[in-house]
Amino acid sequence: MPTASHERSLDSGAVKSRPVPDHVPPEMVRDFSLFTSPGMLPTANGDPHAAVACVHAGPPIFYSTSNTRDGRGTWVITRASDQRRVLQDTETFSSHRSIFASVLGESWPMIPLELDPPFHGVFRSLLNPLLSPKRVMALEPAVRERAIKLIDRIAASGTSCDIMKDFAVPFAVNIFLRFIGLSDDGLETFVGWARDLLHGDKEQRPPAARAIVAFIDELATERRKEPVDDFMTFIVKAKVEGRLLSDEEVRGIGVLVFVAGLDTVSAAICFDLAHLARNPKDQELLRSEPDRIAVAAEELLRAYSTIQMIRVATKDVDFKGAPIRKGDYVSCATMIANRDPAEFECPNEIDLAREDNRHAAFGYGPHRCLGSHLARREIVIGLEEWLARIPAFRIKTGTEPITFGGHVFGIENLILDWS
Ligand code: HEM
């Protein structure tokens, strides 16, 4: 999420830059940070994606002195083709970190995200079938039912709502509960944990992380005692390399499945609805021709990508003239790759009918998003049901959506109005 993928949720504290390491040539240092550059700090009506796209005027790799939430420096790979090289070369660029566990002062990995091959592949093969297109198809009626329930409630309660709070987060949490086989009775509790983890301060995040871990551990214990036909039973009964999974491995998988689909899906839905609110023609097009929504969602995933992936160099390597040294962090930001003019024609134009859209929103290589089929269906179904039930909408006069950068880009205070 180390990737970075789902890291914003887990870091805390202010960003402080560290000194430039001796091996980094001064001419390779640039004043750039996904956290603190203009447009990255919470900004009313900001456009962080356009702000990062500016890096394409510069070199293919440079050094940023502060490019993680805790202020670590990273090499920044700007070209999509170079990012693919890094993400594919897991021997040189490792995913081995413990982002979630470190919030609790511990060091177990989220699985499979923070494992490297070959062990990564063992877990990936185990989990692949659980999120296959066929499995997602089976989940689809429940995803749609939950979208409809939430949107109908919003429609019944007035002519405006806060998208993150009223729709995007409860929707994503709901699908997580459905995916692991629980009813939505505990929805409010989970939404509270998700809120504290994603948007809480230094004091709120550790208790939320602890509560999630306790929940996963408890569910695993229950399913070991009384197996049923669900996700957690599958995990506690599964074998890798001829043995049952350890408690820590079960926890590493459970936590990742919870964290991975939260701020990612909710941010995508928010950016998509913000785009449609600001572009009434696009909104009208998708409303009148809903068959276009699936293709449009791909373009919106490209243009409003949210994840910065981080890798750690396992050895010294020269990369396009950059002296990367063992232990250095290397950033592959999807929001940068997806605005690469060498990869996409007019990358800063949003064309909802763009063809052959091979974007990097879900990453690349062995860690490519395991939940991409589910995520895609959540986004498409969310948009379909929203447009079918809510009349022409815009950003509520007098309110301003707040965008922010970071490991996971996002948007808050998106108040839509259809009065
Ligand atoms: C729009 C929504 C989403 C986006 C943009 C997204 C993006 C990503 C990216 C970029 C990665 C690669 C991370 C890396 O290489 O370091 C990743 C990995 C992963 N994602 Fe997603 N994700 C989304 C939704 C989901 C959902 C709904 C799930 C469901 C549980 C999920 C589960 C995972 C898992 C398990 C991994 C780790 C895969 C591995 O390490 O082999 N994601 N995601």
Automatic annotation (TrEMBL):
SUPFAM superfamilies: Cytochrome P450 (SSF48264). Residues 1-24 are annotated as: Disordered. Coiled coil: none annotated. Keywords: Heme, Iron, Metal-binding, Monooxygenase, Oxidoreductase. PANTHER family: P450, PUTATIVE (EUROFUNG)-RELATED. Belongs to the cytochrome P450 family. This is Cytochrome P450. It comes from Mesorhizobium wenxiniae.
